[in-house]
Write a structure and sequence with these properties.
This protein is α+β, with helices and mostly antiparallel strands and 251 residues long. Helices cover 33% and strands 30% of the residues. Strands 1-2-3-4-5-7-8-9 form an eight-stranded antiparallel barrel. Helix 1 (2-23) packs antiparallel against helix 2 (31-48) and helix 3 (51-71) runs antiparallel to helix 4. It is globular and about 50 Å long. Residues 13-39 have low confidence and may be disordered.
Length: 251
């Protein structure tokens, strides 16, 4: 089968090239007919290419546009416009929560609506700390803030992680917030329930009773290599942070 496909590909390629070469002579054709014939031949060649190549090209274009918007510090609305164009091209095809490529260490490169998620993420540079995330499905995940306004200190919030469905992760207790300062670690929060943890964040009684937080993995690059992008969003749970959106890059 592979040999037959290769033979057919070669045959069609030769036909396309020959048909173009026959009409390429300026002695034989007017400029208009030459252009039309050339376009026809190029169209034939395009039909020989796998459709996945076109999809990859579109993904690379939209990805580059998104990263450029982030680097230029464009408005959140503009960045989210680029996100909307990239999401339909999700390499994980809607399986971001179950993909083996999800596990690993990630660096936050952009976020929106996170003032209640972590006020420190809303600080301007150079006060805003660096944010990294370690994910291990079926185990625990950790978000770490360092540098910036924190100086030599590091804050790490860890919690449980479970797969809710193909796209969504469920976050569950216990929640542990640790402060690392030089060689000493101090446990600031050790909450055995969502309500107890939200109470430490001054949530209302109604907000404390809200269900567990769900994070949709909207876009996940699956090469497993440094530089992969991941886009996620809080879609349920604590009403104060629902809608928070994050773009991480693999370290």
């Amino acid at each position: 089968k592979k040999r037959q496909k290769m033979v057919e590909f070669t045959r069609r390629l030769v036909v396309a090239v020959l048909s173009f070469s026959r009409v390429a002579s300026p002695l034989a054709l007017s400029r208009r007919s030459f252009g039309a014939a050339a376009a026809s031949s190029l169209s034939t060649l395009g039909g020989l290419l796998p459709s996945s190549m076109g999809a990859r090209g579109a993904e690379e274009d939209e990805r580059s546009a998104l990263l450029a918007a982030i680097a230029a510090k464009e408005r959140n609305d503009d960045v989210e416009g680029h996100i909307a164009k990239l999401l339909p091209l999700d390499p994980s095809k809607g399986t971001g929560a179950t993909s083996a490529s999800l596990d690993g260490e990630w660096r936050l490169i952009w976020s929106a609506r996170t003032s209640k998620f972590s006020p420190l993420l809303s600080l301007p540079e150079p006060l805003r700390p660096d944010s990294t995330q370690v994910l291990r499905k079926g185990d625990r995940g950790a978000n770490t803030l360092s540098s910036g306004v924190l100086g030599p200190a590091t804050l790490t919030l860890s919690s449980g992680i479970e797969v809710k469905d193909r796209t969504t992760l469920e976050i569950f207790p216990p929640f542990k917030l640790d402060l690392l300062l030089r060689d000493s670690t101090f446990r600031l929060v050790d909450a055995a329930s969502d309500a107890a943890f939200r109470q430490t964040q001054a949530r209302t009684a109604e907000e404390q009773r809200a269900p567990r937080n769900l994070y949709a993995q909207l876009y996940l690059e699956t090469t497993g290599k440094k530089g992969d992008l991941r886009i996620s969003k809080v879609v349920a749970g604590d009403p104060v942070i629902v809608g928070a959106t994050f773009i991480h890059q693999r370290l």
